[in-house]
């Protein structure tokens, strides 16, 4: 980046005005359509609550958005580099192919050069871009009841071992270990801030995390141990409920979450989580304030640890806790998400829709 971007309200104004000054420097992901655009896109402008702004194309793709077919946000990079254009065209023609460096070589390009150019232009490599696109297709197929081999083929993985490895990196386990009759069932939820994994029993939501959270595989292992049950694939009622509530949240209609939750923590940790849920949308607290509110003013560090142990993102709003000086502090989903969530919730507070 050659300069710091303004805040999201200023970027939204630039989107409305189709301001060319941000060409190639900022992009918008639109929750209602699932696509990302240049700020100069000629399409009808989305509502502010449906917009999330990113600095790179790669960040848009990793957050689950598809390129807009009106403004073609990948096109400027493709025009600047014929090799990028050729590979993007090939990916569009064969999205389910398991692309490798050998394919890049076969097309007449040097893999290291392509890797470097894609990282510079998009923030991720060509192979990462292709893999992200296929893995979600495989998860969706498994969730709908497809056999592992069918999900593997749907996702474009020619090799069962490659599919197992890619899936294991995401969930910490091979797809064949997941069934539809587990005590806990996992499902994929797409949001404007990136895809999430929800794990529910028949009656409660046990986990809700962004798929790129590094701790997700270990959290799933801990969850299985705590419940003494296996994790399968499916969408019980609590998952359906939280999916609808997340849609209402990102659509700007409601900041209320009524999905029943299952806590997995010590009595102290659950007290902290209850205190977090009492923070209104649009408000924030410091760790020391939370410690005082639960009657443990000497336990600021323990409060911070409990905050970090939260496995139900957004619903238990650990993103509403700031440093003592008001600065953003660590957030498992990434500080950029924490900032965006706080911006969304300021909208609720301004509109008077905070529960």
UniProtKB/TrEMBL annotation:
Cofactor(s) listed: Zn(2+)
EC number: 2.1.1.63
GO biological process assignments: DNA repair; methylation
Pfam families according to UniProt: Ada_Zn_binding, DNA_binding_1, HTH_18
SUPFAM superfamilies per record: Ada DNA repair protein, N-terminal domain (N-Ada 10), Methylated DNA-protein cysteine methyltransferase domain, Methylated DNA-protein cysteine methyltransferase, C-terminal domain
Xref: Gene3D superfamilies: DNA Methylphosphotriester Repair Domain, Homeodomain-like, Methylated DNA-protein cysteine methyltransferase domain, Winged helix-like DNA-binding domain superfamily/Winged helix DNA-binding domain
Coiled coil regions, renumbered to chain: none
Cofactor-binding details, from the entry: Binds 1 zinc ion per subunit.
InterPro entries: Ada-like_dom_sf, Ada_DNA_repair_Zn-bd, Bifunct_regulatory_prot_Ada, HTH_AraC, MethylDNA_cys_MeTrfase_AS, MethylDNA_cys_MeTrfase_DNA-bd, MethylDNA_cys_MeTrfase_DNAb, MGMT_N_sf
Active site: 37 (nucleophile), 318 (nucleophile)
Catalytic activity field: a 4-O-methyl-thymidine in DNA + L-cysteinyl-[protein] = a thymidine in DNA + S-methyl-L-cysteinyl-[protein]; a 6-O-methyl-2'-deoxyguanosine in DNA + L-cysteinyl-[protein] = S-methyl-L-cysteinyl-[protein] + a 2'-deoxyguanosine in DNA
Binding locations of Zn(2+): 37, 41, 68, 71
Key words, A-Z: Activator, DNA damage, DNA repair, Metal-binding, Methyltransferase, Transferase, Zinc
Domain HTH araC/xylS-type: 107-181
Gene Ontology terms, MF aspect: DNA-binding transcription factor activity; methylated-DNA-[protein]-cysteine S-methyltransferase activity; sequence-specific DNA binding; zinc ion binding
CDD domains hit by this protein: ATase
Family according to the record: Belongs to the MGMT family.
Cited NCBIfam families: ogt (TIGR00589)
Protein name in the entry: methylated-DNA--[protein]-cysteine S-methyltransferase
Species in which this protein is naturally found: Litoreibacter ponti
Lineage: Bacteria, Pseudomonadati, Pseudomonadota, Alphaproteobacteria, Rhodobacterales
């Amino acid at each position: 980046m050659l300069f710091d971007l303004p805040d999201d309200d200023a970027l939204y104004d630039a989107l409305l005005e189709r301001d060319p000054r941000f060409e190639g420097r900022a992009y918008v992901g639109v929750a209602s359509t699932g696509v990302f655009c240049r700020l100069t896109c000629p399409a009808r402008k989305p509502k502010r609550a449906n917009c999330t702004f990113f600095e790179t194309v790669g960040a848009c793709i990793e957050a689950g958005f598809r390129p807009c077919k009106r403004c073609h946000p990948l096109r400027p990079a493709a025009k600047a580099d014929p090799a990028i254009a050729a590979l993007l065209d090939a990916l569009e023609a064969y999205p389910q192919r398991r692309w490798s460096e050998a394919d890049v070589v076969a097309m007449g390009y040097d893999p290291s050069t392509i890797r470097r150019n894609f990282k510079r232009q998009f923030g991720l490599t060509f192979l990462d871009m292709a893999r992200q696109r296929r893995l979600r297709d495989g998860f969706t197929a498994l969730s709908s009841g497809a056999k592992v081999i069918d999900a593997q083929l749907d996702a474009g993985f020619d090799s069962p071992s490659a599919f197992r490895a890619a899936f294991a990196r995401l969930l910490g386990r091979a797809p064949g270990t997941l069934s539809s009759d587990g005590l806990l069932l996992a499902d994929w939820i797409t949001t404007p801030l990136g895809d999430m994994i929800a794990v529910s029993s028949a009656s409660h939501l046990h986990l809700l995390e962004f798929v790129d959270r590094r701790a997700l595989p270990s959290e799933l292992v801990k969850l299985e141990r705590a419940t003494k049950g296996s994790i399968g694939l499916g969408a019980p009622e609590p998952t359906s409920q939280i999916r609808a509530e997340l849609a209402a949240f990102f659509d700007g209609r409601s900041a209320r979450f009524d999905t029943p939750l299952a806590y997995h923590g010590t009595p102290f940790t659950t007290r902290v989580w209850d205190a977090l849920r009492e923070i209104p949308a649009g408000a924030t607290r410091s760790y020391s304030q939370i410690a005082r509110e639960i009657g443990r003013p000497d336990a600021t560090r323990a409060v911070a640890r409990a905050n970090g142990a939260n496995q139900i993102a957004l619903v238990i709003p650990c993103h509403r806790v700031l440093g003592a000086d008001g600065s953003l502090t660590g957030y498992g989903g990434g500080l950029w998400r924490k900032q965006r969530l706080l911006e969304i919730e300021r909208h609720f507070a301004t509109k008077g829709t905070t529960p």
